[in-house]
Amino acid sequence: MTMNDRFAPLMPTAARPPAVMVRGEGSYLFDESGRRYLDFVQGWAVNALGHCPPELQEEVTRQAAELLNPSPAYFNAPQLELARRLVELSGLHHVFFCNSGAEANEGAIKLARKWGRLHKDGAYRIITTENSFHGRTLATMAASGKPGWDEIFPPPVEGFRKVPFGDVSAVEEAMDPETVAIMVEPIQGEAGVVVPPEGYLQGLAEVAERHRLLLILDAVQTGVGRTGSLFAFETEGVRPHILTLGKGLGGGVPLAALVADEGSSCFEHGEQGGTFNGAPLATAVGLRVLETVAAPSFLKGVRDAGARVEKAVRSAASPIGVQEVRGRGLLLAARLAEPVAEEVRDRSFEMGLLLNAPRPDLLRFMPSLRIRSEEIEEMEGLLGQACREVGSG
Question: Is 349 a catalytic residue?
Answer without folding.
Answer: no
